[in-house]
Amino acid sequence: MKKIVIPRNIRQFFRLRAGEELLLSGHILTARDQAHKRLVSVIRQNKKLPFALRNQVIYYCGPTGTPRGKVIGSCGPTTASRMDNFTEPLLRQGLAGMIGKGRRSQKVRQAIKKYKSIYFIAPAGCGALLAQKVLSKKLVAFANLGPEAIYSLEVKDFPLIVAIDSRGRSIYSDL
């Protein structure tokens, strides 16, 4: 199984193939539906984003409340197709990767290929286990969205599978 540390090894994303398993370490951002809606609104209004999207990885996740003595609550992946309508504007801004669960639309698959991004899936139903891979959590934007706010998570050996690689190949239809 490959190990990739981001942002240092972000270029390794382009060599990954659909179906490959990896352990990701580094910083990723959480964002769900409402955060995506706000980000795209800022982009369409030609305003400055609260953070740079270039070379970032967004995890479609809304962590649960943090139990006492823990870094984060359960943090399993959200169904990615709910973010499909917001994906291309973020890819245009340089988003390197996305993490979620489930299929993506053909339009998103084509955009991933066009912008040389990547889509990973995280194991669904394993939110408590995935929380053990989170070393730190920091609020980044949209605090009023609660669990749907954008957080930066520092992760170590976060287990992922390449669902759509930067060539547009998908585990759902090409393997």
What would your notes on this structure say?
- A hairpin with an 8-residue loop joins strand 6 and strand 7 (150-164).
- The chain has a five-stranded mixed β-barrel with strand order 2-3-4-5-7.
- It has a single domain (2-164), classed as Fe-S hydro-lyase, tartrate dehydratase beta-type, catalytic domain (fumarase, Alpha-Beta Barrel).
- Helix 1 packs across helix 2 and helix 2 (84-92) runs parallel beside helix 3 (106-114).
- It has 175 residues and is of the alpha/beta class.
- It has four helices and seven strands, in the order E-E-H-E-H-E-H-E-H-E-E.
- 20% of the residues lie in helices and 28% in strands.
| H-E order | EEHEHEHEHEE
CATH topology: fumarase
The number of distinct β-strands equals 7
Continuous helix count: 4
The average pLDDT score comes to 95
- Tell me what portion of residues adopts beta-strand conformation: 25-35%
Biggest sheet character = 5 strands, mixed, barrel
Tell me the domain tally.
1
Using only CA atoms, what is the Rg? Answer: 15 Å
Q: Looking at the structure, what is the overall shape?
A: globular
N-to-C span: 18 Å
CATH superfamily: Fe-S hydro-lyase, tartrate dehydratase beta-type, catalytic domain
